[in-house]
Amino acid sequence: MSDSVVLTEIHGKAGLIRLNRPKQRNALNGHVMGLVVAAAEAFDADPNIGAIVITGDDAAFAAGADIAEMANATVVDMLTNGRIELWDRLKKTKKPIIAAVSGFCLGGGCELAMSCDMMIASETAQFGQPEINIGVIPGAGGTQRMTRAVGKALAMEIVLNNRWLSAKEALQYGLVNRVLPVESYLAAALELANQIAARAPLAVRIGKEMVNQAAETFLSDGLAEERRAFYVLFSTEDQKEGMKAFVEKRKPTWAGK
Predict the structure, then answer these.
(1) What is each CA distance from 204 to 42, 118, 254, in whole angstroms?
(2) Among 4, 124, 125, 254, which is disulfide-ready with 167 (CB 3.0 to 4.6 Å)?
(3) Distance CA 39, CA 49 (A)
(4) pLDDT per residue as tens digits for the range 236-254
(5) pLDDT for 2
(6) Under CATH, what is the fold of the domain 6-197?
(7) What residues have CB less than 8 Å from 46, skipping those under 6 apart?
(8) Annotated catalytic residue: which of 14, 62, 99, 111?
């Protein structure tokens, strides 16, 4: 799949989705977000792909939403256009998604990055939710995911007073996995994606579900669900192969079933 504003590539067992609106700093409108989600869903359905990377360019991952698209919208428009629901579809992707972030990662762009499962940032990355400057708040997860990532006090400052986080601060507060030079952040994200793609596919899928659930449920409920998922994996061929290979001191061959 390819569109002039969203490009896709395959790197080994990693699917790469690249935002391609450099003049607009990769601002997200409904069309662009729809293409991103469609590309993620296509990679999710491809048995040759084990993980997905979403990126922009070195100057901007995505500098926000396309404000012109929303400036004159009514409440009914926002309720019926299905734009924010695209984030819900992205979150339902079964395979892990890694955001490779450089430069501006603001507003809807920051929400897109936080919707991913992991983040690799370049040293120039800047994160923020500046919606307060235009009289609104984040509407695609920015208040909720940011708070869970960095804590209430800092999230309040980010949402209410347009506080931006540098790449170093984002790493310090747990928003990103690692920070690398601009020359290597994307390669590192693709390497991480391929490393994960080499693991047992069903275990990766269920592991992602369990970690995501941990942020959304009570500990006792999460522990019970984790235990059930752990037991379920003992019905898979990959569990038998993985443990047999460990005992036999050899590399496992995953079947994905």
Answers:
(1) 18, 14, 12
(2) 125
(3) 12
(4) 888 888 878 878 888 899 9
(5) 53
(6) 2-enoyl-CoA Hydratase; Chain A, domain 1 (3.90.226)
(7) 15
(8) 111
Residues 6+ apart with CB under 8 A from 153: none
**Annotated active-site residue in 108, 109, 128, 141:** 108
14 catalytic residue (yes or no):
no
The pTM of this model reads 0.90
Among 131, 193, 203, 207, the active-site one is: 131
- Residue 26 Ramachandran class (φ > 0 left, ψ -120 to 50 alpha, else beta): left
CA of residue 97 relative to chain centroid, distance: 5
Question: Quick check: is 226 catalytic?
Answer: no
Question: pLDDT digits over 32-90, tens only?
Answer: 999 999 999 999 999 999 999 999 999 999 998 766 776 676 778 767 776 778 888 99
Tell me which CATH homologous superfamily contains domain 201-247.
Answer: Lyase 2-enoyl-coa Hydratase, Chain  A, domain 2 (1.10.12.10)
253: Cα separation from own chain's centroid: 28
The catalytic residue among 65, 140, 200, 203 is 65
65 is known as an active-site residue:
yes
The question of whether 111 is a catalytic residue gets the answer yes
| Residue position matching structure tokens 């999460």 | 222
